[in-house]
Amino acid sequence: MMPRRITRENILSGEVRRHAMAQASDGTKFLSDEERRVILERMLSCKISNAPLWVFGYGSLMWNPAIHYVNRQPGKIYGYHRRFCLWSTLGRGSPDKPGLMLALDRGGCCNGIAYKIGATAAVTELDILFRRELLTFAYRPTWTRLHINSKEVVNAITFVIDPHHDRYAGDLSEARTVQLISESAGSLGRCSDYLFDTLGSLEAERISDRRMARLGQLVKRYQTTHRIA
Questions:
Q1: Is 93 in contact with 99 (CB distance < 8 Å)?
Q2: Helix axes 122-133, 15-23, angle to 10 degrees
Q3: Model confidence over 19-28: pLDDT tens digits?
Q4: Is 133 a catalytic residue?
């Protein structure tokens, strides 16, 4: 079975990757170690030497980062917004009843959590992060401008959706999105719990996201109406 929770240890051991590949039944193409290494080196080549590495989290990275960092605080990026637009047939769904995961889609802005990683740990921690997020080509690691307070803007790595990937869900209706989140579950748990954990992190940081809050209300209503425990 897929691990019930993604941890630093089962990422490094390869357990997460092995189980994902073993359970995939839809012809999903997984990145090889070499492909991931090339992407890692390309991203680091754009980083200023000896400068700290910043990472922007907007979904599960907010409540389960699994990386070591020296600072953590709210941050904001422009040009992308948080959206349930990534099909999940493993962790939060199944081939018969796929779920949805969060990704950054084009347009708008997004508030989340910024992680500062020490310069000497950048390679190690980014490798762990890429092993976690880059199982497939659905996410694209991207350098973006991260606003971490009213005066400081830094370069940060985050993960945006590839709109050409077959796991991109596109423009689903709100009703369909609510149904998928409400009904789907996988080896990492229910898709709705993923939503509620994200909402809990946003609330804890006093971050407002009206679209996500509305989704949470609609999913709770759907599950109550359809008696989904």
A1: yes
A2: 20
A3: 888 877 667 8
A4: yes
| Residue in the structure block whose two tokens are 């992680």 | 115
**Secondary structure (3-state) at 14:** coil
pLDDT at 150: 73
Q: Which of 133, 152, 174, 183 is catalytic?
A: 133
Q: What is the pLDDT of residue 3?
A: 56
Residues 6+ apart with CB under 8 A from 204: none
C-alpha dist (Å) from residue 39 to 70, 141, 142, 144: 24, 8, 10, 16
State the chain's mean pLDDT as an integer: 93
pLDDT exceeds cutoff 70 at 14:
yes
Residue 4, pLDDT > 90, answer no
Contacts by 178-183 with C-beta closer than 8 Å and gap 24+? Answer: 178/215, 178/218, 178/219, 178/222, 179/222, 180/84, 180/93, 180/98, 180/99, 180/100, 181/84, 181/99, 181/100, 181/215, 181/219, 182/219, 182/222, 182/223, 182/226, 182/228, 183/97, 183/226, 183/228
List helix spans (H) across the chain.
8-12, 15-23, 33-45, 60-63, 122-133, 174-183, 191-204, 210-225
